[in-house]
């Protein structure tokens, strides 16, 4: 008798977080979505981004970041929103772009129940391990390209870890 294994229907929730949610975190969201689409895993994930501040709520990603992302065939379509305490509950992986945002996220975890969900983005990169993803907002083109390079490398590692952990 043939044994038929049915795929588990799981939804893995991944959130990318930076300060204003107009450069780094929407780029992380876009890069990760492009990777999961390439691998045919879109139905297994819910991917979003947020900012620890409310400076840009409702705005699209920075036009310079969108321009650089499109050159890599990555579309940044999200609108900025502020990180909330509910995000700690909803998301399985919360990816902070730098140490300040990492700390700001954990401050909202009043009872230390969710710190096992919060990670530095570069924890999953072999090239940039333990570095911060720099904010390119006040820099030039090279800054935006560097951020995309770092996110690409880190998102590949993150996806590989999730695939192994969740047997995808």
Give keywords.
Rossmann fold; alpha/beta; 4-stranded parallel β-sheet; 168 residues
How many E strands?
Answer: 4
The appropriate CATH architecture is 3-Layer(aba) Sandwich
Helix content: 25-40%
CATH fold-type name: Rossmann fold
Widest β-sheet, arrangement of strands: 2-1-3-4
What's the N-to-C terminus distance?
A: 25 Å
Question: Quick one: CATH class?
Answer: Alpha Beta
Q: Give the integer mean of the pLDDT values.
A: 94
Number of individual domains: 1
Q: Cα-atom Rg, whole angstroms?
A: 16 Å
Which structural class is indicated by helix and strand composition?
alpha/beta
Number of H- or I-type helical stretches: 5
* SSE order: EHEHHEHEH
Strand content: 5-15%
Per the principal axes of the C-alpha atoms, what is the gross shape?
globular
User: Sheet bearing the most strands, described?
Assistant: 4 strands, parallel
Q: By CATH's scheme, which homologous superfamily applies?
A: Response regulator
Pick out the low-confidence regions: 1-7
Describe the fold and architecture.
It is a single chain. The chain is 38% helix and 12% strand. The protein has 168 residues and is α/β, with parallel strands linked by helices. It has one domain (12-162): 3-Layer(aba) Sandwich (Rossmann fold). The protein has a 4-stranded parallel β-sheet with strand order 2-1-3-4, sandwiched between helices. Helix 1 links the parallel strand 1 and strand 2 (45-51). Helix 1 packs across helix 5 (141-165) and helix 2 (63-70) crosses helix 5. The longest helix has 25 residues, at 141-165.
